[in-house]
């Protein structure tokens, strides 16, 4: 097909431009929303038809399965995503797995363009001895468990009294807060029942968070830091020897309000703390220790189980980075949670950078093995640029990808099966039990009803009780009853 005939037949005088977005987290929803609100669409010259696919029966991706249930911003972000999907101009297909239920060839046959927004859910590697020991866990795996991910076991081995969390990002803080927080304080959230039972039985008394650099180099944000102090009956313990600042730290504090706020908060906590740390540790039943200038060296094991962790003390080198001092410190712990970052997963028939954990791309245009753009195939979000930045940064990322897609309109290969019902027929033929947006509204109402039925002391009701098993999510979404 010539360039001119393609331009006239797809999205303009002819049929709508058909676009498939794989992933219904913020990245995928933002991309779909930006495309529908583009100037090309608003001025009436371009018509688009967008289908959003997700491997889970419910939408929202990272917001549902990657953020702690007590996070105060969840509701606002969910509401924003809900408004986009509830407009009716974007179709949602849940419980559809790319690579098994649908291939890239299937998508290319049914859509003029494909945008991959599959995110990152795996733990980045921490290459030190002992990571294989029983009691050594990936932070992302723990997040999936407490968020009720349908594809992880229902139980989690919470048997440790002393726990180490390695990392100084928001996920590390979430993991540490969830481990140290009392289970009854989470009942007002959407915490699944099996998670509440597991946390309620936990014998934990001390959770230690370790960062390689100093207080001015942490990767979490002021909101997440302040949340630590909101946990009832949990003391925060800091150590004066960990408060080191170099020239780069001073400059960051002077020029970056976020860093200034966090360092100020940490310093105030340290000043308010009793000079005798042992006195602080006796005021609550649980303690959350924040350590800086610690680089993990080895997880220590006894009889195949975690029994401690070894660190090398570090010092700042003047540039804000840290170097080893040769001093080794050991802490007796029975569990270690590695929260050093996420890593994306490879996609079938798409070139992948396994070191960075991203789809090979140039500004969102997916590249082939020779480094040339694959016509009509794009990517956005963490699977495009890696797991960095906050959720809000995903909007700018999606805008870049959509801008390139729109610039490529004349070169897009037209779909062979462009009718909107063609992909529905294909899924039906393959027996895929896909869910819809209306099905999500049913599941959403069902979870809220479960929460309303679970009354707490004082008449306070739970916001919702999250349905965890995939089969139950699909059953509710597709209109059948589920025994409670």
Provide the descriptors you would attach to this structure in a database record:
alpha/beta; Rossmann fold; FAD/NAD(P)-binding domain; 7-stranded mixed beta sheet; 33% helix; 20% strand
Helix content: 25-40%
What is the count of DSSP helices, taking H or I runs of 4+ residues? Answer: 18
Mean pLDDT comes to 91
Order of adjacent strands in the largest pleated sheet: 3-2-1-4-20-19-18
Poorly predicted tracts of residues: 1-8
What is the count of structural domains? 2
Quote the distance from N terminus to C terminus.
55 Å
Q: The biggest beta sheet, please?
A: 7 strands, mixed
Rounded Rg: 24 Å
Helix/strand structural class: alpha/beta
- CATH superfamily name of the largest domain? FAD/NAD(P)-binding domain
- Strand % is 15-25%
CATH-assigned fold name of the largest domain: FAD/NAD(P)-binding domain
Strand elements, count: 20
The CATH class assignment of the largest domain is Alpha Beta
Label the CATH architecture of the largest domain.
3-Layer(bba) Sandwich
Summarize the structure.
The protein is α/β, with parallel strands linked by helices and 484 residues long. Helix content is 33%, strand content 20%.
How are the SSEs ordered, and which strands pair?
Blueprint: H1 3-9, E1 17-22, H2 26-36, H3 39-42, E2 48-53, H4 62-65, H5 74-85, E3 90-93, H6 104-110, E4 113-116, E5 122-123, E6 136-138, H7 139-146, E7 162-166, H8 170-180, H9 193-200, E8 206-210, H10 222-228, E9 234-237, H11 247-255, H12 257-272, H13 277-280, E10 286-291, E11 294-302, E12 305-316, E13 322-331, E14 335-338, E15 342-343, E16 352-353, E17 358-359, E18 361-362, E19 365-367, E20 373-379, H14 382-385, H15 393-407, H16 420-429, H17 437-453, H18 470-477
Parallel strand pairs: 1-2, 1-4, 2-3, 4-20, 6-14, 7-8, 7-14, 8-10, 9-10
Antiparallel strand pairs: 5-15, 11-12, 12-13, 16-17, 18-19, 19-20
């Amino acid at each position: 097909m010539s360039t001119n005939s393609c331009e006239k037949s797809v999205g303009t005088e002819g049929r709508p431009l058909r676009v498939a977005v794989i992933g219904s987290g913020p990245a995928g929803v933002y991309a779909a929303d930006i495309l529908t609100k583009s100037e090309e669409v608003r001025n009436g010259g371009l018509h688009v038809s967008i289908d959003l696919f997700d491997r889970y029966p419910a939408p929202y991706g990272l917001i549902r399965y990657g953020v702690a249930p007590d996070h105060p911003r969840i509701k606002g972000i969910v509401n924003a995503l809900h408004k986009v999907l509830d407009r009716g101009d974007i179709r949602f297909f849940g419980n559809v797995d790319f690579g098994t239920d649908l291939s890239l060839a299937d998508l290319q046959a049914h859509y003029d363009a494909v945008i991959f927004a599959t995110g990152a859910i795996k733990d980045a590697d921490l290459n030190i001895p002992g990571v294989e020991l029983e009691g050594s866990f990936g932070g992302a795996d723990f997040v999936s468990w407490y968020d009720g991910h349908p594809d992880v076991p229902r139980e989690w081995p919470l048997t440790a009294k002393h726990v180490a969390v390695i990392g100084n990002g928001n996920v590390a803080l979430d993991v540490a807060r969830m481990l140290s927080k009392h289970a009854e304080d989470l009942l007002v959230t959407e915490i699944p029942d099996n998670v509440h039972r597991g946390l309620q039985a936990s014998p934990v008394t001390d959770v230690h968070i370790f960062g390689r650099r100093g207080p001015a180099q942490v990767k979490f944000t002021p909101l997440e830091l302040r949340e630590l102090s909101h946990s009832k009956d949990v003391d925060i313990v800091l150590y004066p020897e960990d408060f080191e600042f170099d020239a780069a730290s001073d400059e960051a504090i002077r020029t970056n309000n976020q860093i200034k706020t966090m360092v100020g908060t940490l310093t105030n906590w340290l000043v308010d703390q009793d000079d005798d740390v042992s006195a602080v540790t006796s005021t609550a039943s649980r303690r959350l220790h924040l350590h800086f200038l610690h680089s993990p060296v080895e997880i220590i094991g006894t009889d195949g189980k975690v029994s401690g962790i070894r660190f090398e003390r570090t010092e700042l080198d003047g540039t804000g980075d840290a170097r080893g001092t040769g001093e080794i410190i050991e802490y007796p712990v029975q569990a270690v949670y590695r929260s050093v970052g996420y890593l994306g997963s490879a996609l079938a028939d798409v070139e992948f950078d396994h070191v960075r954990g991203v789809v090979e791309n140039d500004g969102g245009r997916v590249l082939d093995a020779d480094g040339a753009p694959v016509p009509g195939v794009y990517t956005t979000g963490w699977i495009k640029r890696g797991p960095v930045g906050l959720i809000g940064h995903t909007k700018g990322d999606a805008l870049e990808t959509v801008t390139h897609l729109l610039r490529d309109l004349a070169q897009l290969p037209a779909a062979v099966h462009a009718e909107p019902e063609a992909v529905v027929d294909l899924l039906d033929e393959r027996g895929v039990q896909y869910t819809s947006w209306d099905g999500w509204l049913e599941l959403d109402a069902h979870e809220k009803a479960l929460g309303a039925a679970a009354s707490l002391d004082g008449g306070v009701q739970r916001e919702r009780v999250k349905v965890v098993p995939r089969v139950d999510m699909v059953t509710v979404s597709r209109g059948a009853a589920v025994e409670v």
